[in-house]
Specification:
This protein is α/β, with parallel strands linked by helices and 368 residues long. The protein has 14 helices and 13 strands. Strand 5, helix 7 and strand 6 form a beta-alpha-beta unit. The radius of gyration is 21 Å and the shape is globular.
């Protein structure tokens, strides 16, 4: 068991345990102090010294020349597509990745590109799958203009570096850039036992979040070459992302980058402990993860008879002081699989973990 760190302690005034996502975290007291004391200026003019420090720090941590602060991960990913891709071209990416599943089809609206999905189990884009999908422009087909990867994958897996290196080789052969959705790149680095720069080395641009896992309240960074970021800064203006005294947000981001990557192992450890406890409950099947996400499902033989249970499951957890996302029901030949995702984070300590396990044993045990 890891030592109890400050990140293990639940805030005394937080009565509910929220495991919907690691985006639900509130800023730490150190972040609040930094925000209150932040030096600020007009960032559109380049005058916000705290933003400038955050961008410099983020670029250095990922081994890139420059960085750009953006409001969110979706904004950063879509800005990368908008910057890299000529309109009417095609982006290759995994069929379960965040850009496809959770960004509201923005690529067609903002960058004006077509997305071409690839089967990528656990986020792995194989050379063979890429070669089958890449294409040159002809009378009937758009040209491939970008390959996107994701690490850590939004389904909870860390993609091994050799896999990313192989995909980068294919991209180089086709003279295409690679963008990484690295929303949780520091989680991936912790899981793989490397640093974030080692992952970023396989890509030409990377977006990573300060508000996922790192506990900052708002913001992401897009990093890449100096020329790429200069063009992205212009495109950010077009997208409405030129904020003014944004140093009040960047101050929390600096604390996040300085203090929180080293705490992620603890979040991962608790996720694995939760997996072990859930796997012991009859009827529960756990999907082994790598980062701070726990995916599991239970099978219901008669979906109609159990409909009320699935509809009230979130309320049942809430009455026990735990907030979860509603489960997803997937019809199968032998019944219905009910899928759940629980996420550990900075404010989930040992006490909270114990409460989650106790509630899960009681609630899922009664569903038998």
């Amino acid at each position: 068991m890891p030592p109890v760190l400050p990140g293990s302690l639940m805030k005394k005034d937080d009565k509910m345990i929220d495991i919907r996502s690691d985006t639900v975290t509130v800023p730490t007291s150190a972040m609040r102090k930094a925000m209150a004391e932040a030096e600020m200026g007009d960032d559109v003019y380049g005058d916000d010294t705290t933003i400038n420090r955050l961008e410099k720090t983020g670029a250095e941590l990922l081994g890139k020349e420059a960085a750009l602060f953006v409001p969110s991960g979706t904004f950063g990913n879509q800005l990368a597509l908008f910057t890299w891709c000529p309109r009417g071209t095609e982006v290759l990416l995994g069929e379960e990745c965040h850009i496809i599943q959770h960004e509201a089809g923005a690529a067609s609206i903002i960058a004006g590109v077509q997305t071409r999905t690839i089967s990528a189990p656990d986020g792995v884009l194989t050379p063979e799958a890429l070669q089958r999908r890449l294409r040159r422009r002809d009378l009937h087909a758009p040209a491939s203009s970008l390959i996107c990867m994701e690490n850590a994958h939004s389904l909870g897996k860390a993609v091994p570096l050799p896999v990313m290196e192989e995909a980068k080789k294919i991209a180089d052969e086709w003279k295409l850039p690679v963008h990484l959705d690295g929303a949780r790149i520091f989680n991936a680095a912790a899981a793989l036992g490397c640093n974030a720069a080692g992952i970023a080395r396989c890509c030409d641009s990377v977006m990573f979040c300060l508000s996922k896992g790192l506990c900052a309240p708002v913001g992401s960074l897009l990093v890449g070459s100096r020329d790429f970021i200069e063009e992205a800064r212009h495109k950010r203006k077009i997208m409405g992302g030129g904020m003014r005294q944004a140093g009040i947000l960047a101050a929390a981001g600096l604390v996040a980058l300085a203090e929180h990557p080293s705490l992620l192992d603890e979040d991962h450890w608790r996720a694995r402990e939760l997996e072990k406890a859930l796997a012991e409950i009859p009827g529960i099947t756990v999907e082994q993860g790598d980062i701070n996400m726990v995916f599991f499902h239970c099978n219901l033989q008669d979906a109609k008879d159990n409909q009320s249970w699935t509809q009230t499951i979130t309320g049942t957890f809430r009455r026990r002081g735990i907030i979860i996302n509603p489960p997803e029901m997937i019809r199968q030949q032998n019944g219905t699989a009910v899928h759940f995702r629980f996420v550990t984070h900075h404010w989930i300590g040992d006490k909270e973990l114990g409460a989650i396990v106790e509630a899960a044993r009681s609630i899922f045990g009664s569903a038998e």
